[in-house]
Automatic annotation (TrEMBL):
SUPFAM superfamilies: ABC transporter transmembrane region, P-loop containing nucleoside triphosphate hydrolases. Residues 37-319 form the ABC transmembrane type-1 domain. It is a multi-pass membrane protein. GO terms for cellular component: plasma membrane. It holds the Pfam family ABC_membrane. This is ABC transporter. It comes from Streptomyces showdoensis. Keywords: ATP-binding, Cell membrane, Membrane, Nucleotide-binding, Transmembrane, Transmembrane helix, Transport.
Length: 599
């Protein structure tokens, strides 16, 4: 689980361009561009059809109505009905054209995000809160799909409709047209002001959704701690505070929307009112026909929705731009580098074991100037040997083991597997050579068999039962209702700590790896089970080069030799008995006594 939240970044309007953020979606939209353009064209035709209606009205008023021609009136009414039906059908076709491809765009972006998250280094996951990642994969992608379905098309459609509408208005009477044009300049200024303010609150709201998701996720995953320590109230307070913050931000968004909506409604209405007064005067003076005035006002009213909706469409576009920005923040993070140079069939035939050469390591997020966790570690685990790694808490044992499967990269030095530098190996090959089991065993929502066989490609039932028996797990698995097919709950929480640890160990040994890295794999077992696992593990370790983090003498006794890690360096290497004699620190660590550290 992530240890800290990525600081909420608020983008100031100057720092990002809405258009540039949205343009980054182009590679995903490209494959469906034909459908989108067709849909936009259909929507433009449908929208412009609505502008024909006032012209039919003009013809009706100045023609059949003035002349009392009943047949002409019926004909005009039928014409209007047909126009209305065609407009409705065309909008339906547009909807049908975009629905399926846009669901595909959203699914494709989500799949890319998931794939990318799997390939990002552990250091990235250490830094980012999981809720922030979840909200990017859900809410943000939904906002992007909504943008592609509506604002993207309708900003274009409404823009064209407004231009055509104004052309029709000017063709009918240019003085009245000028009156309707008057609010355009203030509306453009107010829209850009709105956009700047809305960008900031949108970013804040979407980041707060991520923070809230993190709190909910942590409360659900940590429900045992929450209940065990009676922390309902403090968790509920943390949730309420964040929910309150989000509510405030959403209200700020609503206020801005209400404001722009009012502006976009009021200014055109004022202009239409002024045009009505002026037009009526012109009709009274005989300078304008009644039909032209009716057509003019009907056109102006037909333009109401395209103009009014601009504020709302801009708001949705802003949210989508923020969502795209948040999405690409993750997608732009560099993936784990693979082999610097692909070794042609470099199989490391010569068995020379595992070498750590002058390894220095700093965590990327460690405070500047802090000493390295590992400082010039030189260690050799001979082929087929089991080396126990012992050291005080926080001495860097887990960190050193994590470097072998390249979960972290050393700041300096190199690691060799059978003489081959691991940075020159494709990761896939490295991870097929090295198996790991960590102290905190993670299981997935899958069957026990699937969880164990995750440790090898194409493992058989035989491999599974062998691994379960090495980990002394066959008895408890056999007692489960469906044996190895039993589904374990999320994170394996339906099993005991010791049971989970044994399954994680089975997963590590199932593929008979050449190199095995075990981080205190027996810590949750009772002494009897531990003895049985150790006996079976000894058999496995005979053919394997293994590095085992150990805290207890019983685990150390599995090993041929022991390395003592102290102050980021290897302080001593030897057999258990040699170190007991020669190193006071080792003797103290193994004694389990609680008095002062001898260092
Ligand atoms: N992701 C991280 N970012 C920054 N520092 C870290 C991170 N993980 C561990 N550390 C620090 O690195 C040091 C070594 O940690 P490590 O987990 O390797 O110790 P350890 O010897 O395995 O301890 P233990 O026996 O308690 O498991 C500790 O001081 C720890 O605080």
């Amino acid at each position: 689980m992530p240890t800290e939240h990525v600081p909420t970044k608020e983008s100031s309007p100057g720092r990002r361009s809405t258009v540039r953020a949205l343009l980054r979606l182009w590679p995903y939209v490209r494959p469906v561009r034909a459908r989108l353009f067709t849909a936009a064209f259909v929507a433009i035709v449908a929208s412009c059809l609505s502008l024909v209606i006032p012209l039919v009205l003009k013809w009706l008023v100045d023609g059949p109505v003035t002349a009392g021609d009943r047949a002409g009136v019926w004909f005009g009414a039928l014409y209007l009905l047909l126009l209305g039906i065609t407009e409705a059908v065309l909008f339906g076709v547009r909807r049908w054209l975009v629905a399926r491809p846009l669901a595909g765009v959203e699914a494709g972006m989500r799949a890319d995000l998931y794939r990318h998250l799997q390939r990002l280094p552990i250091a990235f996951h250490d830094r980012w809160a999981s809720g922030q990642l979840l909200s990017r994969g859900t809410t943000d992608l939904m906002l992007i799909r909504l943008f592609l379905a509506f604002p993207l098309t309708f900003l274009l459609v409404n823009g064209v409709t407004i231009l055509v509408g104004y052309a029709v208005l000017f063709a009918q009477d240019w003085t009245l047209g000028l009156v309707l044009l008057a609010p355009v300049a203030p509306m453009v200024i107010l829209c850009s002001l709105f956009e700047r303010k809305y960008t900031v609150v949108t970013r804040r709201a979407q980041d707060q959704v991520g923070d809230l998701t993190t709190v909910v996720e942590e409360s659900v995953l940590g429900i045992r701690i929450v209940k065990g320590f009676g922390r309902h109230r403090s968790q509920a307070d943390a949730f309420r505070n964040l929910a309150e913050l989000l509510r405030g931000t959403e209200l700020a968004k609503a206020r801005l929307l209400a404001w722009i909506w009012a502006v976009m409604t009021l200014l055109p209405e004022l202009a239409v009112g002024a045009a009505l007064v002026l037009g009526t005067v012109q009709v009274a003076d005989g300078q304008l026909s009644a039909g032209t005035l009716v057509a003019f006002l009907a056109t102006a009213l037909a333009l109401r929705w395209p103009v009014e909706s601009i504020g709302f469409l801009l708001a949705m576009s802003q949210e989508a731009a923020t969502a795209a920005e948040r999405y690409f923040e993750v997608m732009d993070e560099p993936e784990e580098e693979d082999a610097l140079r692909e070794e042609a069939g470099g199989t490391g035939e010569r068995s020379t074991g595992l070498h750590f050469e002058n390894i220095t390591f700093h965590y990327p997020d460690a405070p500047p100037g802090s000493p390295p966790v590992l400082d010039g570690v030189d260690l050799h685990v001979r082929p087929g040997e089991t080396l126990a790694l012992v050291g005080g808490t926080g001495s860097g044992k887990t960190t050193l083991t994590a470097l072998v499967p390249r979960l972290h990269e050393p700041s300096a030095g190199r690691i060799l597997l059978d003489g081959e530098d691991i940075t020159l190996m494709p990761r896939e090959r490295l991870r097929s050579l090295v198996s790991v089991a960590f102290e905190e065993p993670t299981l997935f929502s899958a069957s026990i068999g699937e969880n164990v066989l995750m440790g090898t490609a194409g493992g058989t039932d035989e491999d599974l039962s062998r691994a379960l028996s090495v980990a002394q797990a066959q008895d408890f698995v056999g007692r489960l209702p469906e044996g190895a097919d039993t589904q374990v709950g999320e994170q394996g929480l339906s099993l005991s700590g010791g049971q989970r640890q044994r399954l994680a160990l089975a997963r590590a040994v199932v593929g008979r790896p050449r190199f095995l890295v075990l981080d205190d794999p027996l810590s949750a077992l009772d002494v009897h089970t531990e003895a049985k696992v150790e006996a079976a593990l000894r058999e496995v370790l005979r053919d394997t080069t293994a590095l085992v983090v150990a805290h207890r003498p019983s685990t150390v006794l599995l090993a041929d030799r022991v390395a003592l890690l102290s102050g980021g360096r290897v302080a001593a290497v030897g057999t258990h008995h040699e170190l007991l004699r020669e190193s006071a620190e080792y003797a103290w660590l193994m004694s389990g006594e609680r008095h002062e550290d001898p260092r």
